[in-house]
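Quick question, first post here. What does this chain look like in 3D?
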Amino acid sequence: MPLELTILAWGMILLLVHIFAAAHVKTKQYGPKWNMGARDENLPPLNPIAGRLSRAQANFMETLPIAIVALIGVVVAGKASEWTTMGGWIWLAARVVYLPLYAFGIPVVRTLFFLASLIGLLIVLWPLLGL
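> Answer (accepted):
Ran it through. Tokens below.
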């Protein structure tokens, strides 16, 4: 199996981590009744950590489709290589580090890891651009 697909599978595990981390802290704030309910009521703003985890999840979900297309694309196009594997691992590793940096509210460094993840994605996408 191409390593790009393994990287993508781990990316899906990371998505689950994002989802459950955000849901856990929201449930701690709003309670289990909120978690199991329809969530129609107006609620106070999220506390800082819950808010950060929700924003980190949204950020991951914004860029995840790019990773999916890039990683599957190079496999389908027969353009997977050591470079695309390296780019995929850079993307995944940077996104793993990004989550706790965001959760703890660490500025600048968090942005640098986000940029590293984008560089990883560009490395994967490059062969698909036909340049």
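Residues 3-129 form a domain with the Four Helix Bundle (Hemerythrin (Met), subunit A) fold (CATH 1.20.120.550).
The chain is about 80% helix and 0% strand.
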